[in-house]
Amino acid sequence: MEPYAPLPIWCFALACLQYADIQGLNLCKEVDGLPKEHTLKQKREVIDSISSTMKSAKAMIFADYRGLTVEQDTELRRALRKAGVEYKVVKNTLTRFAAKENGLEELFPYLEGPTSMASSDTDPVAPAKVLCEYAKKFENFQLKVGVVEGRVMDADGIKALAELPSREELIARVLGGFNAPIAGLVNVLNANIRGLVIALNAIAEQKQEASA
Q1: Which option is the CATH number for 47-164: 3.30.70.1730, 3.40.50.150, 3.40.50.11270, 3.40.50.620?
Q2: Distance of alpha carbon 141 from alpha carbon 131, whole angstroms
């Protein structure tokens, strides 16, 4: 029987390369799987965030911010923040998913190109007012579509909405209209307080006289 002959070195090298290739392929599959799962989770979180905004917002306005400079974008965001309006850039694909979940498929035709979303949970007019003002100021900034109390409106509808008084303006008008009654109420309350003070002083004087 012939003694055992060792394998040529090239056979050993080939086997190592094949093993490494197999292991490397499996490793790539595992590594590739992690980012995909992470990306899907991130996308789901974004969809949920947009969907939540659609459910709670009194008004949402979508716009095309293409062409705005950094300075213009900063100025716009500052004005929206001052008005209590949330503003963010959104991805059309993810926004479509959120819109579908909320029965707002009417938004689909408008979700093309760069898209930003301004929303308010308290004032249905504020987003339209600020965005319309800056659409006039910056010609590159264009209104797309809006949703107010679940109703979808085009750019003309947004402009008409912007002409309405804001929540703060309405409150100021209401308070202005009730100035006289409020003043009367204050006088009545003051009179009652004055009467109570006089009554307490009288009781205190009577006690002092009784103890003297």
Answers
A1: 3.30.70.1730
A2: 9
Bridge partners for 118 per DSSP: 61, 87
pTM above 0.70? no
Q: Taking the mean position of all CA atoms in its chain, how far away is CA 50?
A: 7
Closest to 80 in 3D by CA, of 68, 88, 70: 88
pLDDT in tens, 32-76: 444 577 788 899 999 999 999 999 999 999 999 998 999 999 999
**Per-residue three-class SS string for the chain:** CCCCCCCCHHHHHHHHHHHHHHHHHHHHHHHHHHHHHHHHHHHHHHHHHHHHHHHHCCEEEEEECCCCCHHHHHHHHHHHHHCCCEEEEECHHHHHHHHHHCCCHHHHHHCCCCEEEEEECCCCCHHHHHHHHHHHHCCCCEEEEEEECCEEECHHHHHHHHCCCCHHHHHHHHHHHCHHHHHHHHHHHHHHHHHHHHHHHHHHHHHHHHHC
